[in-house]
Each structure stands twice: as C-alpha cells, then as structure tokens.
Protein 1
Amino acid sequence: MKAFVKHQGLVAPIDLANVDTDMIIPKQFLKAINRSGFGPYLFDEMRYLDQGWYGKPLSERTLNPDFALNRDRYRNASVLLARENFGCGSSREHAPWALDDYGFRVIIAPSYADIFYNNCFKNGLLPIVLDKTAVDQLFVDVEAEEGYALAVDLEAQVITRPNGDTIAFEIDGFRKHCLLEGLDEIGLTLKNAELIRQFETAHSRTYPWLYGAIK
Amino acid sequence: MAGQTLYDKLWDSHLVESRQDGTALLYIDRHIIHEVTSPQAFEGLRLSGRKPWRTDTTVATPDHNVPTNAEERKGGVATIIDDTSRIQVQTLDDNCDEFGIKEFHVNEMGQGVVHVIGPELGVTLPGTTVVCGDSHTATHGAFGCLAHGIGTSEVEHVLATQCLVTSKMKNMLVRVDGQLGPGVTAKDVILAIIGKIGTAGGNGYAIEFGGSTIEALSIEGRMTICNMAIEAGARVGLVGVDQKTIDYIRGSRFAPTGAMWDRAEAYWQTLRTDSDAVFDAVVELDAAAIDPFVSWGTSPEMVAPVNSVVPRPEDSGNPVKQKGYQRALDYMGLQGGMNITDIMIDKVFIGSCTNSRIEDLRAAAAVARGRKKAESVKQVLVVPGSQMVKAQAESEGLDRIFIEAGMEWREPGCSMCLAMNSDVLGRGEHCASTSNRNFEGRQGAGGRTHLMSPAMAVAAAVTGHITDVRKLA
Ligand code: SF4
C-alpha cells in the first residue's frame, strides 16, 4: 500500500451529511476492471449535469457549476472536508479508489461508515476524525479564505492551520504504523505463513474432504 | 462452562491466531468470485507477483453484469453488447485461466448467481468458512457454515493468504415458532423479522435463525432467510444442520463421496448450537401471526402486511423516523394511509439470490398457471438463479407456464436485482420484486421497488396491483 507520512494541501469542503458510496461513485462505474481511473467520475451525479458512464470523455460532460469541486478556488484540492457518516452504503472499494485517483490524500470528518473507513487505509488514504466543533470551524475558515491549505503530519498526529495553530487527532496505532511504513496487509499476513501452514496441516487431517475437491 | 453457539464453534475451528488488538486471523475454506469485485484483486496479485495460496478452495462465475436475454447470450462473452460489461466478463475468464481458478463460464452448466451456485455445486458445505466479494454471502449460512461478504482488498487477501483479518461478532438468536399460514413463505418471515428489528437491529451480530418454523422450512427457504440477514444489519446469518441440509448436499458436484462422505456427515451432524449456549440477544416471532409482507418504502425495514395501509409519517413515533418516512413516500410516489393493495405495478422481477431457486420458481408458476399478465403491466422478467435451476425448471415445464402467461423467461444472472445490465426500471416505475434491496435507484434511477415473495409477485403481475395471493380466485 501507499505510505502516508506528511501532506500539505488545499482543502475542499463537501457540506453534506451521510454522503454514501453511491454518491461517491455510482454503480455504473463498477463495471471497470482497474483500481485507477475513477477520478473523473468521483461524485459523478453531483459533479456533472449530464448522465455519466464509464469511459465517457470529459469533453462531452457538462460540469455542475454549483458543486464545490468545480469551483476554481478548490481546483487541485487534496484534503477533503466532510460531514457526519461519510462513506455509508455499499462496501465498494471503488469509493476510496475514486477519491485517491482524483488526488485526495486526506479526509477530515466527524465520523465515517466502518467499511469505508477501513477501505481508506487499505488504499493509503488518511481519514481523520475530528470533533464536530473543530470540523464546523474548518468549514467556516475554508469558506472565508481562498487558498486555505492544511498541513497533516501523521507521525506527530497533528494538523497545522495556515496561521500556525495545530489540531491534534487520534488514530489507532496498528493502522498508523501500516500507513507510515506503507505496509501491505497481505505482506503482514504472509509473515505468518508458517502459522497458516501449521493450521492447514491440522485442518486437513480433521476435514480432509475440504482439500482437493474443487478442480 | 456454558455451551457454545454454532457461530462460536465455527469461529473456533477456523481460528489461526488471536491477536491482542482484538483482531484475528481466520482460515477461509471456500471463496466464490464474480466479475465485479474481483478484477482489481487479481490485478493486485499480478502487481505484487503473488499467487493464490490454494486454488482448490475457489470457484468463479460471472453473474452481476451478464445480459439475461438469450439473443445477447448466445455467443457467450463475445456477444455481450456493452463494451465495459463484455470486458469485465472477459477479464474474469482471463484471470481465472491465468491463476488456475475453476470458473463456470457465462453459458456453461454451473453458471449462475454466486449464492445460488455455491450450495448447488457443493462448494458450500456445512462447517466451512465461506467468503465472497458480495454482501449477500450470508445466504450460505443456511448450511451451518460461517459465511459473509468481503471487500475487494479482502478478496485479494484471501486469494493470497487463504485467511482473513477480522474480529468476532456477538451472537443473536431469532426464534420463529409455530406454523406458517397457507400462502405465507420464508420471504414473508424474513421481511417480518427485518420489520421488527430494523435494518440496524443485527449490527455487530451473527444471527442464528431457529425455532420450529425455521426447522420446518426447506433448505431453499432457509437460504432466503439467511440471504437477508444483511438487510437486518448482520453480516452473518446461520441455521443449524439437520437431515434436510445433508440431503440437499448429497450428490452435488464437489461434495465428498463414499467413506469420506460418511466421515463428513458424522461431523456435520454435530453442527448445532449446544442446548445450554447463551446468546447475547434473543428475538422471538410467532409464525401464525405473519401475513404476506410487502415493502412500501426505500429501506427493507419499511414493510407492512399486504392487507394493511401505507403508514402515515406522523404515526411513526419520532421526528427522525417521520422525516425518513416522508422522504420515502415522496420518492415512492405514495400517500400515507392508502391501502397497500392499491399500489399499481408497472414491472415485475422474479429472480435474485433471495428467490430464484427451483422452489421459488415452482411457487411462482403455481400462481401463473392458466393466468395472464395484466395489460397494464409492461414487463415480467423471470430470471432463474442458475443454469441448473433453469434446466430443472424447463424439465418441469415451468418456462412454458410463464411464457403462456405473457412473462419473459430469461438466462441466469443478477439481472434487475441491481440493474447493472440492461434489465432496469424506468423513472417512477413501480416494480414487484423478489429481490432483497429497495434502496432509491437500486433497480434503475428513479425506480420504485416493492419487495415480496415469488407467489405475491406473480399475483401482482396478473392483477396489475399489489394483491394478497391468498385471495386470487
Ligand atoms: S442477485 Fe442481487 S443481491 Fe444477489 S448477488 Fe446478485 S446483485 Fe447481489
């Protein structure tokens, strides 16, 4: 997985609670076979006025001028500021893939849906939980100041505002470690290969019909 | 020491390692793969130069994205019209070839909806752990196994390591006792359960379904119930093993035979919750009080007995619920207080991993026999869950019954359950559907889904509105 250590970037706000994975990436894009290339379809139904499908050229799309990411001041944003329960709905990993492909590295919200939160870490995306008051304040600041950027330091677990003030955030130690090192979970599990093999030997003696049957 | 639940037993027998942070490494016996959530997992294997840990645990089949009309299916992958769909199905074929995974191709005997083919092929066996990149994997729990859905990174993880990093759930027992009335089916039972506990009621739990009603159900009926455990918030649904379970598996393609069968059967017979086991939560229902159920809203908990009325938002009891009810009614184009049976139907879908097995098609055909689709109903799709179900149904002449009733007999796949192919609802259309999700846009942008049993769906098809199948003359 992609490592995450530090990041500084422009902040874009999505001022809506319960943004579900269908809004992040609608089902017609699940037909794709890649992990990358979903960026142009991120928030498709809110971002464009026309109906999108996988492979539709950008030149044929009509941008919705009211959608935050389409405003000039938020172009090239890499920090997404969001509301409660971000990423609820289906378990599709296409949602973090699309956010990542668009260029987001950090999400800041008061809460996330479980599976989405998990899926972010598997894709090198840092979802930060801040309390509601801090998030409310950030929404105010971002709106007030064009070019508002935040610096995020995962090692130190702090966010630094443009004026130098810092906000601390919590993160589970195992996840932090994996993200800092860019460790992949499969690699970690494979460090236990011997253990898995031992388990398998015993398992295959007790339940031999589960071995070699499918071919 | 108190006894163990079935879930506890399955967990223990697959535990490779328990970790201090509360997670565990769980061994996976069976993995089912389809075209939509697997391409990126295979790509991940390729990029990291990894191979599947074992291949004799895994089967693949295309289902979510395949066309269901015979014309488009006749040339296999090659004749799929939509480019991205064709490439996705082709990619599954290529990946399975490259990594040595057993696949049932688009027109091959054995192909079908992942949760229909697993059990019928004997891939799913009692006492196993079963995963699939699809949330309705809970279906397989009807065989006394531990089965749940996973994400794409986890599909890759299971392919590469045969294990899953996960944590243990709590135990819930849903007990249904007594005899179901005539015309009341497993689908009505599970809709009644979800209506009672809500879509978050099972969050964090593995639900075991028990009681005399569940014991009396067929295996197909138990699968229908476990299938929708996820709609009650539980990733896992389970039923203990009995003679019916064992008889269903006997003779299936990948099931053991001879002396190995006897050994397996002896073990399977033990796969029940101990009588002194304690559940973290227990919910009880009286079967005799369950009527045919229908969903009226945009969440599987928004259900009502067929002979009742659509609820009024103001009767819902709290402001948050009231807002949700109002939003649902607006989306569905319905009025609180109207009779459920006054809801007009535009299209009907009989299929999906919830209700596309042979028993479901027999129940649907029994109502369709000698009747005709109502003029006002634009389309009735009957989509068998698998090639094997399709062949069985045709050998019983069920296809003729549907066709004579003005319905379309299709090729196996997920079809209008999630509408990724061309089987979709138009904006504002009401659909009587035997599937499992009635979310906004699930069956097509602006489409309006009413969940119900196969017999009830046919009753709606022949009358043009939601109808109590027990009252059909
Ligand atoms: S039939 Fe529907 S719910 Fe079942 S696997 Fe297919 S898409 Fe998922």
Protein 2
Amino acid sequence: MTLLQDTRTVTQDSDFTLYGSSFRSRLMLGTSQYPSPAILADAARASGAEILTVSLRRESARLKEGQDFWRLIRDIGARVLPNTAGCYSVKEAVTTAQMAREVFSTPWVKLEVIGEADTLQPDVFGLVEAARILSADGFEVFPYTTEDLVVAERLLEAGCKVLMPWGAPIGSGKGLNNVFGLRALRAHFPEIPLIVDAGVGLPSHAAAAMELGYDGVLLNTAIAKAGDPAAMARAFGQAIEAGRAAFLAGPMQPRDMAAPSTPVVGRAVLT
Amino acid sequence: MKVHVNGQEQEVDAQTLAAALSALDYGEAKVATALNGEFVPARLREATPVRDGDRIEILAPRQGG
C-alpha cells in the first residue's frame, strides 16, 4: 500500500492465488440450479470463472446422471472445487471430502459443516475440527465460515490458507449482512485470501465485497436463477472486476456532511 | 444376500464391494464408495468383503454450490 497524501492510498494488484495456483478471474461459480446443462455451460463461460464448485450425490446405476454431468464439467475446462454441502457432522464432511478427492482427483475441498437447517449457517465448532482432520490428511481446505474473527484464527491454526466467510445465508440473495464484520476480518488477515461465499444476490453485492478488499466472490443462485443466466454471469464478472479496480484505486473516505465539489473560491456574487 | 444400496434394499450376489458394483451395473462409472459409513477407496474394493445387511453408498459428481 502506498501513501500518497494524508488520506489517499492505492494498492498494488496481486495475483489471485489459492494454495499455490493463480487465477485471472476472481469469480468462483456454483453449478447448481440452472435451467439446463447447456445454460450452465453458457453461464460458466460468460462469467469467466476458472473455478467451479461441484458436489457428490447418490448415483443411480440405471440413469448414471453423474457421468453426464462430469463430462459437461470437463468440457467447460475449469478447475473444480468439490463441496461437502449437506453435511451436518464432522464425520459426514470428512468422509464426503475423502470420496470427493478420489472422484475429482483434487486435494481441494470447500468444507461445509452445516449447523442449522433454516439459515444453513456453519457449525463453526465442527468446521474447525473437520478442517484440522482434513488439513492433516493433505487436503487444501476452503472453509465456508462466518465472519467471526476467532473462528477464522482457529481455522488458520487448523491449516486453512483460505477463508470463505458468508455474506448472508446460502441462497438468500441478501448481500453483505455484516459489512463491519467483513471489513474487520479483512483488516485482521491482510495476507490471507478471503472470499465471500454465499448470500450474494446482485452484481452490486459482489462489487461491494471486492471494494472491501476481498480477494474473490463465490456465488451460484444469483446467476442460476436469473432470467438470463449467461447475461447475469457476465454482469457479475464485470462487477467483480470493477470492485477490485476500485479497491486498488483507493476509495475516498465517506463523511457525514456535504463538501462542495465545485470550487468555492471564485464564486460570483450575483445578489 | 440383501444389502442397502444408496438407501434402497437390493438383492446382490457378490462377495466383495468390487463385485457388487459390477453386479449392480455400475460398470466403469466414475463413482466413489462407502461401506457402512466408511470411505472405501477404489483400490480397496476388490479386497473389501460385503456382508448381508451392509449399507453401500455409491456417489458420483453432481451440481453443487
């Protein structure tokens, strides 16, 4: 960060690096709830996302739906981030992660240990325990967490090198419910990649996260449920780029009272 | 013998998890397996016995957020 004047700062851009891999796009995209596989593929390409989240579910021997889905994802060509969505215990999450590592051939896991069904908020106690088990077993854990600073510290101690606090409950589209908390998290962990995961409903929400200095945004429903998912994916991609550029450029400090932008000196007296 | 495959009771004539997958017609499908709640890596399926009443989970890639 370079200090130009009293209150002016600019920040040098840095790579979006997650566990040693660098990416151009700071948008991470979920693959669920699209109207069709073709629309998912169009939206994924339009978003510019280089990382797609996926899951594991029961496979029918007759339908083999998972095999078709996997071909589609491979054709898109993005890196996959398997999740442990729907797991309510450490045991379920760890076992799901182990199964995902084999199927997807990746040490990456978006670790979800859900604590409450209505809000889908993380069970942060189970999350830390599962993160410790998985990190010790060679996983590269992306924990879906809250903005709680102490939990964040525990997750880093457990071996996580990325944190993914929620903006709002999954699928709610509410945006950033606790801007103060997210800002505090950013300030506490300036060197840790932070990704807002969940609750983002509009490109402006994603831009706001990036303006706070977040490294990336992970979203799904806001694009999948849009009238035109590919167009919305493009809008999100642009918003995330704009938010990042704004953060780097050094936003002005807000103030309570008005301050004239047109010079006061030289104003004519016309009374 | 009867086993529970993805929550459904099924009759399977197989001694091992690998044989059960084959008998259930999964062929070369890209799946991960668990037996009675424990992950069984693909390389261990041949050596993993299946017994009457066992619970087998067979999972594959799917959409996720």
